[in-house]
Request: fold
Amino acid sequence: MTSDALTPSPSPTGRGEQDHRINFHDRLVVIATMHRKELAIAPILQTSLGVRVTVPQDFDSDLFGTFTRDIDRTANQVETAELKARKALELIDADLAIASEGSFFPHPMLGIPFNREIVFLLDQKHNFSVYGEFLSTDTNFRHQEIYSYEQAYEFALKVGFPDHAIVLMPDAKTSAKEAIYKGITSENLLKESVHELLNQSPQIHIETDMRSLYNPTRMNNIAKATEELVRKLQQLCPHCNFVNFDVVKKIKGLPCELCGLPTQVTRAHVYQCDRCQFQQEVLFPDQVQFADPMYCSYCNP
Reply:
């Protein structure tokens, strides 16, 4: 089926298709966090889906890996988020959970720090999962070897201290939990911790505390990933009304504005339903019908 616009979710066509519409209103959502991520996630879910929210009191997300490397993350990012969600549902009598997982790595082209945030939803009642993703260069993820308190303070100011916390450790390979100083948000504590570590070694390691409750920049990126999750949950299949009717393929070939030949610019998106496998091709997803000649291999070889 081909269209030049994504059809909003109508009722089933009457040809015998099953309606898989999901009602989230007033369902209890368990948010798997110990780092206050509900502050970013809950308001968006409550406003957009009408859910109720709770956070398990005894949930320990550090068991699944820490940014400070004292506990390794053994699964990939999405798998880890799912493990968190399943664990949270073991602690509270519910069938709907949200978990978040972040990662930081060099941007593949720019070389600057890059943040990928995943907000994962697990619905055991309807037997599906889906996640929202947000990628951003808006991060203060940094680390450095330092030799003095002055260097530590200069580093701290560059990453947004004291609104953003600092982590100190003897060296970057430290795995001993008791040797890692986390959540430093005051100048006095920073000075005290730096001097204590420098008394043990002439060089120590400093980095940004990337835990969400100590990092407002990352918390904002988690909110953006939550918004993407909501978009997927509200984008329903025109055939059966199931959630996450989303892009599975991008088709190149947008014609050149000058010569009309196909270019490498995207001409269409193909959407597909996870539940009934219905597909829909949407032409001109970027709202343009011709490509700039600068992208044409004939006009601009």
Summary: The domain at 22-139+213-234 is CATH 3.90.950.10 (Maf protein).
